[in-house]
Write a structure and sequence with these properties.
This protein is an alpha+beta fold. The chain contains 4 helices and 17 strands. Strands 9, 10, 11, 12, 13, 14, 15, 16 and 17 form a 9-stranded mixed sheet that branches.
Length: 245
C-alpha cells in the first residue's frame, strides 16, 4: 500500500467574516461554479470546473486567520496517516467520515481523504482570448524547518525532488495527470514560523490576467520578473506566473 497521493485538492480556508467575499472572488478568478454548501454548519463548498474533476475547495473557519491547506487523496487515509506519523507528522483529528487531519513537522495542516478524482480540468478562456488556470501550490518554508519539511514531503509522496530550479526554489514532481504542480520555496526570514502555502496561476498574459483580477477586487502586493504577487479581497496571497496554462 502506498502513501503517494493520486490527486491533491487545495482548500482556501477563510477567516471569520471573509467566506462570502473570498468565495465570490475565486469563483470569478477561476470561472468555476460554486457547489451547495455542506458540513454541519455549512462551512464547506467546492469550486466546480466545467470539465474534469474538482481540485479547489473552500472552507469558512470558525476562528483564526485565513490559510491554505491541502487534501491528499489516497486509497487508505488511516494507513497514510500512520506513515506520516512515522515521518514526524502529527494527527489533529481522525474524523468519523473517514478523513484524517494532520500537521507536518513544520506546522502545515493537511488532510488525507479517499475521494476519487482523475481528470484535470482545462484552462478557462476569457473574453479577450487569454487563458488561465490555478495550476500550482507553493509551500513556503522557513529556513529552520526547510530540510525536515522537504524530507517529509519527499518521502511521504514518493515524488521526484528537483533541487536545481534556483537557489530559492525546488520542486516535487507529481504525476503529469494531477492538477497541481508542487513548488518548494525557502523563505528569507530566519524567525521561527509555521510552514504556509499559496496558490499560483498560469496564464497566457500576466498583465492582462493581473488587470482582470484587479477588476474583481484583488490588489498587487509586489512585482517580480517572472511573477506578480497578488492578494484577494480578504488578504489571501497568491501569484500570477508567466507559465503557459
Amino acid at each position: 500500500m502506498t502513501t503517494s497521493p493520486f490527486w491533491v485538492s487545495a482548500f482556501l480556508d477563510f477567516a471569520p467574516g471573509g467566506f462570502e467575499r473570498g468565495v465570490a472572488f475565486w469563483r470569478d478568478v477561476t470561472g468555476y461554479a460554486v457547489s451547495e454548501r455542506r458540513g454541519r454548519d455549512g462551512e464547506f463548498a467546492t469550486l466546480v470546473p466545467p470539465d474534469g474533476d474538482d481540485y479547489l475547495r473552500v472552507q469558512a473557519l470558525a476562528e483564526g486567520p485565513g490559510r491554505l491547506h491541502l487534501d491528499l487523496h489516497v486509497d487508505n487515509p488511516t494507513y497514510a496517516a500512520e506513515a506520516a506519523i512515522e515521518l514526524g507528522g502529527h494527527v489533529l483529528v481522525r474524523h468519523e467520515a473517514g478523513y484524517v487531519v494532520l500537521r507536518s513537522p513544520g506546522g502545515f495542516v493537511f488532510c488525507f481523504v479517499a475521494h476519487p478524482a482523475q481528470r484535470t480540468p482545462g484552462p478557462a478562456t476569457w473574453p479577450d482570448g487569454t487563458r488561465s488556470r490555478v495550476d500550482q501550490v507553493c509551500l513556503d518554508l522557513p529556513p529552520a524547518s526547510y530540510d525536515a519539511e522537504v524530507a517529509f514531503w519527499r518521502t511521504l509522496t514518493g515524488w521526484e525532488h528537483e533541487t536545481s530550479v534556483s537557489p530559492e526554489f525546488a520542486r516535487l514532481h507529481p504525476p503529469a495527470d494531477q492538477p497541481l504542480r508542487w513548488l518548494l520555496q525557502r523563505l528569507d526570514d530566519p524567525a521561527p514560523a509555521p510552514v504556509t502555502a499559496h496558490l499560483d496561476l498560469a496564464c497566457d498574459d500576466r498583465e492582462a490576467e493581473a488587470a482582470r483580477h484587479l477588476g474583481i477586487g484583488a490588489t498587487v502586493v509586489r512585482r517580480h520578473e517572472h511573477w506578480i504577487v497578488m492578494a484577494d479581497p480578504v488578504g489571501t496571497t497568491y501569484c500570477i506566473t508567466r507559465r503557459k496554462p
